[in-house]
Amino acid sequence: MISVLRRLGPGLLFAGAAIGVSHLVQSTRAGAEYGLGLVWALLIVNLFKYPFFEFGPRYAGATGESLLDGYRKLGKPYLLLYFILSLGTMFTIQTAVTIVTAGIADSLFGSINFLNLNSMGFSGVEIWTVIILLVCCVILVIGKYKALDRLIKILIILLALSTLTAVVVLNTKSNSTLELEFFWPVSQTDLVFLIAFMGWMPAPIDVSVFHSLWVEEQTENSNSFKIKEALFDFNIGYIATVGIGILFVILGALVLYNSGETFGAGAAEFASQLVGLYTSALGEWSAVIIGVAALSAMWSTTITTLDASPRAMAKSVQLLFGNSIFSSYYLWLIILTCGTIMVFLFLASEMALLVKVATVLSFITAPVYAILNFWLITSKYTPVEHRPGTYLKLLSWAGILFLIIFGIWFLVS
């Protein structure tokens, strides 16, 4: 077990980035509102998105470069398009994941008077947001990639064990029987939720760029990390994201389906309801288990996205405009941290809206990243022996068609 963990790296970072809002918030809501009726959507979107995530570590393992280097080779406008899209969404995405993390921390540990902010009128969630971002920054600046890698391994193990424990215990105690049924959205509200649910399930496709950057970093730290190791590592992380996503749907269904209860829009309210409902169903002793699962899920997402976005933006600037102060990872880390705090202070009460906006934007832009990744992995810039086989190509075409059709359906509806 320990030897396997040592071989893993970027794949678990991918899992850490993916298992967050899509799982804790969206999957729990899916189970609460539709029972197991949207499990089909979870499985099919993970299947159709699989190739485009896999192409990240495949390209990086085969060439020693990130997808951003590949986009630049395909043409400068494509890399510029990525830069613009990322610049327009990274603050919203970081805010959406951090606000949920802060809400859970506030619910579990209560408000604290950090830097005397309480006397200035700041709420507990706002104070926790500052603390979480600062702690994550310190870890990334001092420990760098190695510290991130070690921390995520711990968080993912805690998350998997605590979530599985909660499902087993709750299923044993629950009097309700869940049936695997099919739900198809009819109303506009259901359609918007379905698109949002799939938009970040298991993650936005541009996370493949992050993954390729982590593989590039891992390769520099370990000469033995080649394409076979990169793909094995990725598949372990991907399986974990799918499995934990299903567990959160089951949790939501066991606790809330047909109960008449709904989640509030505020971060603190949502987190308090989440922990409270599970503990009322399982008993007060379970607060630790649910708290560990929830906080592990969101903290892993917060710190991985806080690392990945600055890494990607710095690399994009370097490839587009050459070395400058704006190609500094640390500068982008400061920009993202400060920007997240500013967005959060103005939109803290609209967590549900932030999540919807970010997830829908991710779904609409998904075909763009899917096409770019497929084009690059089948181009002359990828060694022939490392290009995808026939089945993976067919799945890629099906995935692109799926993402385009659902994107058009959402826009028309």
How would you describe this protein?
The chain has 413 residues and is mainly α. The protein has a single domain, classed as Amino acid/polyamine transporter I, CATH 1.20.1740. It has 15 helices and no strands. The protein is globular, with a radius of gyration of 20 Å. The mean pLDDT is 83.
Spatial gap, N to C terminus: 48 Å
Average pLDDT across residues? Answer: 83
Estimate the helix proportion, in percent: over 70%
Question: Number of folding domains?
Answer: 1
CATH architecture: Up-down Bundle
Structural class of the helices, strands and pairings?
mainly alpha
Q: Predict the CATH topology.
A: Amino acid/polyamine transporter I
CATH class: Mainly Alpha
| Unreliable runs | none
Sheet of most strands:
none
**Series of H and E elements:** HHHHHHHHHHHHHHH
3D shape = globular
Based on DSSP secondary structure assignment, what is the total number of beta strands? 0
Strand content: under 5%
Number of helices: 15
Radius of gyration: 20 Å
Q: Name the CATH homologous superfamily.
A: Amino acid/polyamine transporter I
Q: Topology, pairings included?
A:
Elements: H1 2-7, H2 10-18, H3 21-34, H4 39-63, H5 67-74, H6 76-109, H7 124-173, H8 188-199, H9 207-221, H10 227-256, H11 267-282, H12 287-321, H13 329-347, H14 351-377, H15 390-412
Helix pairs in contact: 2-7, 2-9, 2-10, 2-12, 3-8, 3-10, 4-9, 4-10, 4-14, 4-15, 5-6, 6-7, 6-11, 6-12, 6-13, 6-14, 7-10, 7-11, 7-12, 7-13, 8-14, 9-12, 11-12, 12-13, 14-15
